[in-house]
Amino acid sequence: MIHYLKKQMIADTEFPFHIGIDKYRSGESCRLHDHDFTELFYVAGGEGVHRYKDRETYLGRGCVLIIQPGVEHSYQVAKGSYLRIYQVAFCQDLLGGEWPALDHALSYIDPFFIDPSIVGKKDFISYFTLTPSQRFELLMLLEKMYSEYDKKKWGYHCLIRLQLMELFVYLSRWTNAGSHQPGDPVIMKQDLYQEVCKYIKQHYMNPITLEQVCTYCGMSQSAFTRNFKRVTGLSFIEYRNKERIQAAKDLLITTDLTIMMISAKVGFSNVSNFDRVFKHFEGLSPLVYRKHLTASDRSAFV
After folding, report:
1. Does an H or E element contain 38, and which?
2. I need a labelling partner for 71 at 20 to 30 A (CA). Which of 13, 50, 198, 277 fits?
3. Interstrand relation of 63-67 and 17-24 (parallel, antiparallel or unpaired)
4. CA–CA separation, 24 vs 278, rounded Å?
5. CB within 8 A of 142, min separation 6: which ones?
6. What is the pLDDT of residue 296?
7. 287 with 262: CB under 8 angstroms?
8. Which residues of the chain fall short of a pLDDT of 70?
């Protein structure tokens, strides 16, 4: 058996945290091991088997495991499949005094992530499977965390601590007793697309692609496009562009930013494309729209 020390996984002793994305091919495995840090283990794709505390559990898209320090475990890819795994390694003292803030939740959740010294237990239920909408939310958060850790811009320590707490709060909500009951597949799909819509509204200014969102949802582009249009009445591109144009209209009315600046601010890579899409939704160019609104505002005060 292999014993991993935190100094082998976590380079910065002042900030005991690491996040990585690993992909294993068919037949590959991770040998039996333990470690002196806590590990959050999320399966973003593929299938396999996890051996943990003398029992085997199925690994598939949406599975979350929390492995406490000193617990022996291993995993193997299913034949003909693969595993894409997000691994978050951290020491309990990373969040210091924040752990007790979650103590009030212990009456209705499995406290798998709380510091054992606070809870007074050593054995937690540490395996569960997320619904499609929960998977999407968790992946967005893990991607933000991974980006912060990878780029290491000023203040990343602070943001990762906040994101880690946010992750645990979401897990607390999802592990509430009702979360594990079988749901209506139709409602679960609607929830997923609602999460996608919420994500677009919050991130329309970023280069969000159909391929990226389908990967996060674990769906083919044809299936996602068909179902997304059924729920929203628009294609993914139309919905994203509608949000961008709405934001652009607000900026045209409320600011003196140039058309080029507004184009970039709402997520368009070039002004020509912005102009074309704006005309598609509004029937006139951004410049004419601004002049028309300005003239209307003046006449209102005459």
Report:
1. strand 38-46
2. 13
3. unpaired
4. 44
5. 19, 42, 86, 88, 167
6. 55
7. no
8. 6-8, 53, 96-125, 176-190, 294-302
